[in-house]
Amino acid sequence: MRVLIADDDATYRQWLEMLLSSWGFDPQVVCDGDEAMAALRRKDAPRLILVDWCMPGADGFEVARFIRRQAHTRDAYVLMITGSRRKEDMLQVLVCGADDYLLKPFDPMDLKIHLRSATRILGLTEELEKLRGQVTATG
Question: 103-117 in b/e burial notation, b at 16+ Cβ within 10 A?
Answer without folding.
Answer: eeeeeeeebeebbee
